[in-house]
Each structure stands twice: as C-alpha cells, then as structure tokens.
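Quick question, first post here. What does this chain look like in 3D?
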Amino acid sequence: MIRKQIIVHQFLHETETWKRTLGFIEEENAILKNRLSQMLRYVDANDTLLIEKLEWFQDSFIREDESTRLLKSQINEEDHLLIRDTYEDGDLFRALLKKQKRLRKQFENIDRRFHRTRNEFNQYLAEVYA
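> Answer (accepted):
Ran it through. Tokens below.
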C-alpha cells in the first residue's frame, strides 16, 4: 500500500510538471504566432515560396495548440483518477500505470516537436531576413 501511495504521489508530481511545461509551450506558441503575423505585414504578395513556408509554420503552430489542449485535458483526467485512486483500491492502479506511460510518451513527443518547430521557425526567419 505504501509503495502504491509513493507511485501515485510521483505521478501527481509528474503531471504538475507537465502542466507547467505545457503552459510554457502555449505561451511560446502565442509569441511565435504573433511574430508570424508581424512578418506577414512585410511579405511581398508575389513571394509565393515565402508565403507558403509561413503558412506551413502557421499550420504547425495551430496543430501545437490543438495537441497541447488535448494533452492538458488528458492530464487533468489522469489527475482525477490519481486522486481517486489514493482513496480506492482495485484494478484502477494498473490502468493508471499504463495511462501514465502513454501520457509520458505523448508529452515527450509534443515537447520535442514544439522545440523543433520553434527552432526551425527562428532559423528560417534569420536566414530569410539576414
């Protein structure tokens, strides 16, 4: 029983860390979208390659928002299960182990994809406007 409580406590700590990181990703993504809109003001309407690339980044930022919202919702559901599991016994704990592992993988993918897209965007702007 104590081992289970330690694991549940660790999972709660992990989900809180994820929420803070996802909040940071949301803020950074909003900044990137603002920078993108500022760049569009200076784009020549005939520069289709640049416009297409900026649209690609815009789509990527929108996908990041959607992925982040979905994962935050799943993490909140997990939090409710974790809190409930501290008061209940049964098969819920095994399901929590599987779900936490899946959420961990999703979080890692979103975090990695966001940082890659942000870096590509910054590099692209530096190259285009250098």
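The two ends are 61 Å apart (CA to CA).
Residues 2-128 form a domain with the Methane Monooxygenase Hydroxylase; Chain G, domain 1 fold (CATH 1.20.58).
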